[in-house]
Design brief:
The protein is an alpha/beta fold. It has a domain of 277 residues: Amidase signature (AS) domain (Amidase signature (AS) enzymes), CATH 3.90.1300.10. It is built from 18 helices and eleven strands. Helix 7 runs parallel beside helix 8, helix 13 runs parallel beside helix 17 and helix 16 packs antiparallel against helix 17. About 4% of the residues have low confidence.
Length: 432
């Protein structure tokens, strides 16, 4: 807490006089990212007033819902460095304070994934995305909470505790980017970076009422982002921005898709943001999928889909029914099998000697079952709970490299099957 106090005192001493309108924190916090960035570029707002406003608000939010894991004290140095730049050298996010999910490496800070094994092992350097954001003028100032191992739709771990949903303190904000969802929803941050394997950006965005963007696999660099399980090939985890509106996500993607991204990580494709595609007014062919056929949507979600499709049609777009092929096979075999290809061995290794958080206890207890017991339980559940039975079969792991390669092949074949269906309908985008 003293770090927060020192930072606030230091920044406050550099602020303009109280008579200046830029000192009104409420007015600053209400600005959308595009407007804030423009005012900072035009020097209508000072860098100090903006950062200080968000520091104070972030602390208020944290006290209410416990959503932070770290304060990035070097943010003041970043601010001072930005002040020395010429106007022509300022990036798209000049002076914008941003929050980062706990997993993003920042030099001198832990990226814990909620695991004791990762404590007191500070990153030696910033991750690629953090470097790119800083090059674009952004000021990372806090890191946000996550569930232990990241493999949960809750947001709790034994190190930092449980994050609450500000809309209802009895509910979860979702996971695994839950701390980010909360910070943005409560105005403690204006832009954040999350990551997503199976909904870790999308679920917190939905639960907290903000916007999130799960990028295509390998579109952004994943170098310098911690994970409890590395090496997964058939199940891809990606980085993506979170914000309060779509325009902010767009501005962030414009900033991220710079030459710096490819220069720092050549495995990230050099394909800049395509402005002509984003700003086009051409009518689109939009695939429509109210339910994926595997998970039943809540009434509110189904209603949201219908309410979204109508204005799209009214705007001249074609809305075309779409269903994913072999959805149970894709989820139960390809996804679950790929996620636990090693039978959970890596995950269990990371938890050795650690307290297991309640949010992942059921999953961990299941993984710890001996294989014969998993087989027996799968057989018993086959006709009562077929999905649970299939899951028990899959989490035993692949067993041999040959079976793992066969699984990778099956994933590639399924991808081509989905692409073929997409192309047969000549879709531009899928609403689901």
């Amino acid at each position: 807490m003293c770090e927060w106090t020192r930072a606030n005192q230091s920044l406050t001493s550099a602020l303009p006089s109280p008579q200046e309108p830029s000192l009104n924190p409420k007015a600053i916090l209400e600005l959308p990212l595009e407007s804030l960035a423009q005012k900072l570029q035009d020097e209508e707002l000072s860098l100090e007033s903006v950062l200080c406003s968000y520091l104070e608000e972030a602390l208020k939010v944290h006290k209410k819902v416990n959503c932070l894991t770290d304060f990035l004290g070097e943010c003041e140095e970043e601010l001072q460095a930005l002040k020395k730049l010429k106007k022509t050298e300022r990036g798209l996010l000049y002076g914008a304070p941003i929050s980062l999910k706990d997993t993003y490496d920042c030099r001198g800070h832990d990226s814990t994934c909620g695991l004791a094994q990762f404590l007191e092992k500070p990153a030696a350097k910033d991750g690629v995305i953090v470097k790119v954001l800083k090059a674009q003028g952004a000021i990372p100032f806090v890191k946000t909470n996550i569930p232990q191992t990241l493999l949960s739709f809750y947001c709790s771990n034994p190190i930092y505790g449980r994050t609450l949903n500000p809309l209802n303190l009895k509910k979860t904000p979702g996971g695994s980017s839950g701390g980010e969802g909360v910070m943005l929803a409560q105005g403690g941050s204006i832009l954040g970076m999350g990551s997503d394997t199976a909904g870790s950006i999308r679920i917190p965005a939905s639960f907290c009422g903000v916007c999130g963007f799960r990028t295509t696999g390998y579109r952004l660099s994943y170098s310098g982002i911690a994970s409890a399980v590395k090496g997964k090939k058939s199940v891809t985890t990606v980085a993506g921005p979170m914000a309060r509106d779509v325009e902010s996500l767009v501005l962030c993607m414009r900033a991220l898709l710079s030459e710096d991204m490819h220069r720092l990580d050549p495995t990230a494709p050099f394909m800049p943001f395509r402005e002509e595609v984003y700003s086009s007014n051409q009518p689109l062919r939009i695939g429509y999928c109210e339910s994926d056929g595997f998970t039943q949507p809540t009434p509110s979600m189904a209603r949201a889909m219908r309410l979204t499709s109508r204005p799209l049609q009214d705007a001249g777009h074609q809305v075309i029914p779409f269903s994913s092929p072999r959805i149970e096979y894709a989820v139960e075999h390809l996804f679950v099998g790929g996620l636990f290809a090693d039978g959970g061995a890596t995950l269990l290794e990371k938890l050795e000697g650690d307290i297991v958080d309640p949010c992942i206890k059921t999953m961990i207890n299941t993984l710890r079952l001996p294989d014969p017991l998993k087989c027996f339980s799968a057989y018993i559940l086959k006709y009562i709970e077929p999905r649970a039975s299939q899951k028990l079969k899959e989490i035993r792991g692949m067993g041999t490299p040959k079976k793992l390669w066969e699984h990778h092949t099956a994933v590639e074949e399924y991808q081509q099957e989905l692409i073929a269906k997409w192309r047969a309908l000549d879709l531009d985008v899928l609403l689901t």
